[in-house]
Amino acid sequence: IISPIAVPTAFDGIDHCMLMTFHDLTPLRRVEEMRADFVANASHELRTPLAALSGFIDTLQGPARDDAKARERFLGIMQNQARRMARLIDDLLSLSRVELSVHVRPEARVDIAPLIRQVIEGLEALAKERQVVIELDLQLEAATIAGDREELLRVFENLIENGLKYGASGGRVVVSLTSAAAADGSEEFRFSVRDFGPGIAPEHLPRLTERFYRVDVGDSRAQGGTGLGLSLVKHIVNRHRGRLLIESTFGKGAVFTACLPSQKPVAGG
Ligand code: ADP
């Protein structure tokens, strides 16, 4: 950006002077590119089930019109596709809500141990379907943090659900809650989910929390995934001033840990 400026008196005799300032537009451009990528990905993800729905409607109006069996089957598939779109829209809305409020730390006092139990109960049907045993190792009964109950439920749910979906079918998933000292000496709670499935190759690890990033898109879709879960988890954990750690030994399983700063109970509160 070049702009003319007034000539300082010390430079008498010089008629014109230019001030040149340089702005690095690279970060701004990167944000723009990320936004454009996000819109393109979201549109593509929504278009896929929509195209399937449209195709089945054509078939039901045409070749399958009088075939009761085919109609039944296609309606089932259409229901699944519609549910997938609804899940995707829910995740997109949750992500945008959390992103907008990422700088505001939630303040309600939440005891996380009962939430973890609640999530495991809700996932029992999936665990049964995948023939996975969930082992719960709660080393603390009272673990209070300053947080948002619904958001924390999403974190626990996403991480345990991923362990069930991507861990070895017929295996086990270990869910634990421990207390540890954070780098600054304060107390933090560590919620972790360990599975013994195929794990994640090192090149994928840094990208897992990107929106729509999936190691195997087909596998994720087959499991009803949207590719937004870990991105949402990371944003929620950040909003709670915590950290998300992902470790994996390829071929042996993965461990996802959400470290959340503790809130000491207020005396008499
Ligand atoms: P999705 O909706 O696809 O499950 P996530 O954001 O939750 O999206 O996860 C992103 C990708 O990370 C998944 O598609 C999967 O490839 C990989 N992933 C997540 N959890 C695990 C795990 N426990 N073991 C192996 N891969 C995993």
Automatic annotation (TrEMBL):
GO terms for biological process: cellular response to phosphate starvation. It catalyses: ATP + protein L-histidine = ADP + protein N-phospho-L-histidine. It is found in: Cell membrane. This is histidine kinase. The keyword Cell membrane applies. Keywords: ATP-binding, Cell membrane, Kinase, Membrane, Nucleotide-binding, Phosphoprotein, Transferase, Transmembrane, Transmembrane helix, Two-component regulatory system. The chain holds residues 168 to 436 of 436 of the full protein. Signal peptide: none annotated.
